[in-house]
Each structure stands twice: as C-alpha cells, then as structure tokens.
Amino acid sequence: MSYSPNPLLFPRSSGASTSSGASGAQHSQNDHKSKGKMTAEMLDVRARDEVDDAVARFFYAQGILFNVMKGSMFHDMVYIINHAPKDYMAPKYDKVQTTLLDKEKKHIDHPLSTVKEDGATYGVSIVSDGWANIKNETLTNAMAVSRGRAMFI
C-alpha cells in the first residue's frame, strides 16, 4: 500500500472589497495586494506547519529518538531534500539496503583505511567501554586507536 499525504486544505479567501471613486480604487488595489501577500504568508506558515507535523509524526510512529534531530546529519538531510529536484521521491527500501548501503560503506571505509595502515606501522591500542542498559543487558564498545585516530571494531 502506498502512502499519500493528506492534502493541505486552506479556507478560501474572501473577495476583494469594493469601493467607489479614484481614491477608493487605489485603496482597493492596495488592500488586494496586501491581502494577497497576507494570504500567501498564511499559506506558507500552514505549509511549514504541515511539514513540521509530518516530521514529528514520523519520529513518533517509528520510535526514533528525538536526539537524532540535534545531529548535523539530520539537518544536512533536510537541507539536501529542500534543494532536491521538485519531483524528488525517497529511495525505495531495496535501494537503501543494498546499493546505498554499499556506497556508504565505501564512503566510511576510505577514511578508516588510514587508521588500519597506521596500525600496521605504529601499532594499535584496543580501548573498550561497557555499561548496562535499562534492561540490565551489558553493552560493550571496542575501538582500535592509532596515532590519535579511532575506529569502532
């Protein structure tokens, strides 16, 4: 089943006021311009609110930690989506778990290769840290550190 967002429903704007006389016509034109500008601003605010609602709903429904929003990668993603082609559609599930995952792994492996190379030349320290989560399950992180650079192992 494909998702289609609810359409934005906005109240229709009332017609322009009518006035008689030359000064009334000038006043009516200015009123119409300011009403048009006000309506456009109201639509912009409502559209932004609709986007905020959709982002929040996504976080709630998927159980994503709110801390994610503090990260630069979230803000980078929003920026890039804002500047994407108008007809941009999110990648499909299969593409994210195959092609894009492989591409990201290569992107991450490249800077880590220097840590691996330095480890062969200068040696590596294995650093670990552990704690228990709320369910009292032990969690352990292990990192290889060489020449001040680290990578999770």
Give a written overview of the molecule.
InterPro entries: DUF659. Residues 13-25 have a biased composition (Low complexity). Residues 11-36 are annotated as: Disordered. It comes from Amborella trichopoda. Pfam families: DUF659. It is a single chain. The protein is elongated, with a radius of gyration of 27 Å. With 153 residues, the chain is of the alpha+beta class. Helix content is 53%, strand content 14%. It contains 4 helices and 3 strands. A 3-stranded antiparallel beta sheet has the order 1-2-3. Residues 6-22 have low confidence and may be disordered. The protein has 2 domains: 17-90, no CATH class; 92-153, no CATH class. It starts with 21 loop residues before the first helix and ends with a strand.
Summarize this, please?
Residues 91-153 form the DUF659 domain. By secondary structure, the chain is α+β, with helices and mostly antiparallel strands. It contains 4 helices and 3 strands.
